[in-house]
Model the fold of this input.
Amino acid sequence: MLKHLKSYCNQQVSAAPLAVFRIGFGLMMLISIIRFWSYGWIEKLYLDPKFHFSYFGFEWVKPIGDWTYLVFIICGLSALFVALGLKYRLAIILFFLSFTYIELMDKTTYLNHYYFISLVSFLMIVLPANAYYSIDNLINKKQYLNIPKWTVDSIKLLLGLVYFYAGLAKLNSDWLFKAMPLKIWLPSKYDLPFIGENLMQQEWFHFAMSWSGMLYDLFIPFLLLYKRTRTYAFVLVVFFHVFTRVLFPIGMFPYIMIIGSLVFFDPKVHHKIIRSIQKFLKLFSISPKPVATATFNYANQKLIVSGLVVFFVIQLLMPFRYVLYPSELFWREEGYRFSWRVMLMEKRGYANFKVVNPDKNTYFYVDNTDFLSSFQEKQMSTQPDFILEYAHFLGEQFKAQGHEPIEIYVESYVALNGRRSQPYIDPDVDLLKQYESFQPKSWILPFKDEIKGL
Amino acid sequence: MPFCFYICKIIINMMKKTILAVVSLLMIGACSSDDSSDTDAIQNDDFDRSAMLVNWADNIIIPAYEDLTAKLETLVAQKEVFIAEPNAANLESLRTAWKEAYKVWQHVEMFNVGMAENTNYIFQMNVYPTNIQDIQNNIQSQDYDLSSVNNNDAVGFPALDYMLYGMAESDAEIIEVYTSAADSGKRKTYLSDLTDQMNTLTLAILEDWKNGYRDTFIANTDNTATGSINLVVNDFIYYYEKGFRANKFGIPAGVFSPNPLPDRVEAYYSSGFSKVLALEAIDAIQNFFNGRAYTSGNNGKSLDDYLNSIKESEELSSMINSQYDAARSKISTLKDCFAEQVETNNVTMTETYDIIQLAVVLLKVDMLQALDISVDFVDADGD
Done:
């Protein structure tokens, strides 16, 4: 076993796939940041709201006024530097830090694919993605044609993991046997040309989409791994992501996954891609002199490999942490994030906060729009940790206005995957006496139905 | 960039293949479902959204605006009569005209779309409590821009409420401030300008609906943030929550403040008219929900039918309707003057609020989920 591992660690592959991945990843990230900025989302999501929802333990990460722009500038520039392979190590570390900082500023904007990007960039810190076809090669006058096989494989593993776990998460009764939430989402795309008013309305089509989505996620990593099915699998990747992009507002994610999946291809393909970049650069008379090749050696390979083993074990276990909490996961959302649960729920809620003065026995309700953006209110009203954090914020807010003693209660309703709305949080629990932790939240009311499956 | 070209080339090639494959798959799917069509009817999108929009525009919104314009013209005419000769009889006619127009207004306030939205119309017609200080300043200075945001609380129906009922203690004294008292001329001018402004604004919006906007409105059936259905449904729910629930009941009952605020009721100065308006409003809300035509009372397509067209949502429309009925009968038990209700028995007022509140959940959570209408302009990415 150990021998196998050792010989595996010593296997070498072409450095081209990782170089192409680096270029693609860097460019996509640069475009993402520019797109994000140009849509005015920095102001809308991070600067305008008076209050931001923090991740447990990361309450210190907040937007920093106009300096927030600087974080985005650093993030965009470091993405460009990653693509160029210029001062790669520093660039990827800065990218990882700035991107993750942005994501931690407000969990309202949590998306699985943002988390994915944080993980990939973290992984890339220890990968020699600048070994080949990078500006660093020119500076150091050295390039490496081959790198350890595990470096490329680790990217493949992470990508495969995302797909596979997203597939596992679809193995539940709502998705497979009720075609929920696609049965709600697809008919509402009635305005799509050609297919909107017929195909999108068919029940069989909702089931077909649910099942094929599940099968796609579960099997695509394997289809990409095997040479025989690889081209066909890539066609599927492109089709699937373009199709979901047409149907749902999922931004840059589909393109990132399409470009990312190229890493599964043979080095020949990557050399072709690099050659076409070279040709293009020649048009601008940029043709750098070839540099000497050298053999790539990790100084501390053992340490890094063991680190990555820990990293991946955590990744494998994280999505299953929900078993430590009472069911229903979709209802309680304890252990829901960071688990590749993508597009599984249509959840809407309504939360009405009541500020009580227990001494005088008086109360009043809060107008959420006084404190939250409509996006924040939407996210808050269906997730217990948001509700708790907001209640504490309201407590501080009204205490500062002289309302004391003070208790805060919430009357809330949530509808999940087409079921009628049900009371969500115990209306008799003073939320100011509850604190965020990893313990199960006793004040979430039980879900009056059952969703079977993983 | 050639990198991108290369990718594009791969993608285009593959897309060609995929489209072929998918089209053939779809053909198979379509054929096989054709076979079973007699047993299990194909669920084509049989809800006619443009018919719903046509019903909203032609049978509800435009007729309500037409009626409002007619009532406001009467108001303007009565105002002229009163200004020419301020006496008790003319004051009474003017007040009646104001009441009639205010009632019709309840059928218009929820439609904050098109020109109404662009011109901030709703906020120039019914922001209350009205600001007496601002009104007095305007009267004194005689230099005002009634459409300015700063004057939103010094114009519209609530301002007239004050001008016609609240300027002085008794009717005789009110007539006096328009006749013998100092500045009576300035007051008449302000009264006149206010009324004319309301009429002009409303007329412009009616004209806009009739000349073009109606067609744009009914054509835009998309399920996007700017689609007509999304706009109207979001306005409708916003109105129900804010204009109806909070403004008419919640705020005066002290639901959002430590103490009740009886002077925040609608039509405060005319005391005894707030209940009429509230009942008119709940009718308008329910009529819109059920697609009941403003003039003929005929039933047309609206949200109730839309919900009924969706599997498993059939009972939702009747649940919402019974909630409206419950709200109406509770409102009927209130005193004519809401301010008096709050001062004498606020518990009944907060109970009314609670009943109205129950429909908010049904509308905002259940209905929006069933129709998959997104909440106002949340345009960030999802995953």
Notes: Chain A touches chain B through 74 residues (CB under 8 Å). Residues 203 and 260 of chain A are 33 Å apart (CA to CA).
